[in-house]
Amino acid sequence: MRITQSTIFGEARRGIMARLRALNHANQEVVTGKRVNILSESPVDGAALLRIDAELRGVDRFRSSIVTANTRLSVEDSVLDTVTELISQAERAADLTNTDEDDPLRESSKREIATIREQIIDMANSQVTGEYIFSGTATDQPAFLDDGTYVGDSSARQFQIAENTNIEVNHTGEELFAGAIQALDALAAALETGDGETIQSAMADLHDARVEVQARHGEVGSRLRNLDLMDRQLGQRASHLLDQKQAIDEVDPAESVLKLQAAANALERAYAAVSRVISTNITDYLR
Fold first, then answer.
1. H-helix or E-strand containing 57?
2. How far is CA 176 from the centre of its chain?
3. Which Pfam families match (predicted)?
4. Could you count the other beta carbons within 10 Å of the beta carbon of residue 136?
5. Helix or strand run (H / E) with residue 245
6. Which among 119, 110, 108 has a CA at the least distance from the CA of 187?
7. Residue of 12, 25, 37, 14 lying closest to 264 (CA atoms)
8. Same domain? 151 vs 81
9. Whether residue 108 is found in the same domain as residue 213
10. Total of domains in the chain
11. Do both 282 and 217 map to the same domain?
């Protein structure tokens, strides 16, 4: 097969262009410190990086949800601690009275219980970032009216903290406080007109309400521990993904400089080879 001059120069041109592309790629690696700067240059690595970045965004989203859920649960934890103590305080106030309707302590106990009731309703209407956390999903309105009526809904707010994993964040005010408010109202009424048996019955109801609050408090502690565990697992997953990304994408600075030098040398040799071919062909022509 006869090799024409155009074939020789075409091959030389393609060789130079290939080495120019290699030099440009090596230069990009030195400048950016990354192996993959244009996805089309490395489809397999590019696809892997896109997958890793998508998963990292998902991990960040889940961890952000965990932070929000943790904040709301921590507020509930504090509220329930306070409410438990307030109910105990009401029980102690009622214990100081006796069955005599004329007992002067009854009046002071009623006032103290009324104050405690108001404090519990205030706590039940707690807000986090402008949302009433004990109103169920009706977070734009208080959980309780001043008369003790629950006006939230019965649906618990949920947050997604992992793929296919949701967690109920806050209990509803109806679950937590309605029993205690009703028991306090009954106790206040018993102290107003009731006998000793009625007072004891109201105190038993208040005791049951406190036990219920304590049980829900335990659930909050369990949810907080689960959130902490999930956050640590997500942190480990993020670290593993970042290691994978680094292994695929990041280059050793010294290695990239050597690669750049090698690409530059290859381009110089290609230019020299083309120069010799051109010189030879001119000489042949002159002969």
1. helix 43-95
2. 26
3. Flagellin_N
4. 21
5. helix 196-249
6. 110
7. 25
8. yes
9. yes
10. 2
11. no
Range of the domain at 23: 5-33+251-286
Please state the φ and ψ torsions of residue 112, each to the nearest 5 degrees: -65, -40
Q: Are residues 66 and 138 in the same domain?
A: yes
Identify whether 11 is part of a domain. yes
Amino acid letter, residue 54: A
CATH number at residue 95: 1.20.1330.10
**Residue 171 covered by a domain:** yes
Tokens of 263: 């690409």
Report the distance separating Cα 15 and Cα 250, nearest Å.
Answer: 28
Around Cβ 51, how many Cβ atoms within 10 Å? 13
Whole-number Å distance between alpha carbons of 155 and 76: 16
Q: Are 23 and 263 in contact (CB under 8 A)?
A: yes
Q: Which residues make beta-bridge pairs with 167?
A: 159
Q: Is residue 42 part of a domain?
A: no
Residue 44 lies in a domain: no
Q: What is the DSSP track for 147-170?
A: TS-B-S-SPPPEEEEETTEEEE--
Instruction: Assess whether 230 and 97 both reside in one domain.
Output: yes
Tokens of 80: 């329930």
Q: Are residues 167 and 226 in the same domain?
A: yes
Enter the DSSP assignment of 157: P
Residues 184 and 125 in one domain: yes
Give Cβ neighbours of residue 124 (< 8 Å, ≥ 6 apart): 79, 134, 143, 144, 173, 176, 177, 181
